[in-house]
Structure formats: C-alpha cells, structure tokens
Amino acid sequence: MKLLLRRASAGWSDLPQLVRFLGLNAGIGILAGWLLLALILATDVNGVGALIATSETPLLPIGMLMAGFAITFGGAAAGAAVMMMAHDRDDG
Question: Which residues contact residue 43 at a Cβ distance below 8 angstroms, ignoring those fewer than 6 apart?
C-alpha cells in the first residue's frame, strides 16, 4: 500500500504545474457539485429525492446526476481558476 501511495504521489509531482493546478481546482469543483447534489437529494427539492428513491434502479439516475454535476462544477471551477490567474501585462 505504501508503495502504491509513493508511486501515486511521485506521479502527481512529475506533472506540469499547470496540469496540477487545473486538476486540483477541477477536483474542488467536483466535490462542491456533489455536495450540492447531496443537499438537493436530502432536502427533496421539487420531489426529486422521493422520485429517485421510489425508482426501480435508483443508482442510474444518481450516477447520471453525479456525472452531470461533476462535469459542470469541475469545468466551471477550473475555468474560473484559469481566468483569475495572475499574468504579466505587456504594455509595450
């Protein structure tokens, strides 16, 4: 197990800095999206939680919602992070 973790951390540190930056921000966005999805399902907004709970296969709609929220929030967080990056101005 330690060897696997050591290899994973070595692989992460070998990535270019921009890729690590995007991956970290996308991961934060994905977690935020999944947290919002969990709150939506827990509070049963517009009955969507009850509708999924009474479904024959509740894992399918939950998985589809998780994928949609991950793509949307992960992409938005990565895009926002790139747009807020500091850059040098070239006024010349």
Answer: 49
Task: Enter the tokens of residue 23.
Answer: 């991956």
Angle at 82 between CA 81 and CA 85, to 5 degrees: 85
Q: What are 63-78's pLDDT values in tens digits?
A: 999 999 999 999 999 9
> Model confidence over 36-67: pLDDT tens digits?
999 999 999 999 999 999 999 999 999 999 99
Q: What's the token pair of residue 21?
A: 């930056």
The amino acid that residue 52 corresponds to is: I
**Cα torsion for 11, 12, 13, 17, to the nearest 10°?**
130
Residue given tokens 């991950």 in the structure block: 70
Can you give the pTM of this predicted structure? 0.80
CA distances from 75 to 1, 8, 12, 61, 69 (A): 31, 23, 20, 21, 10
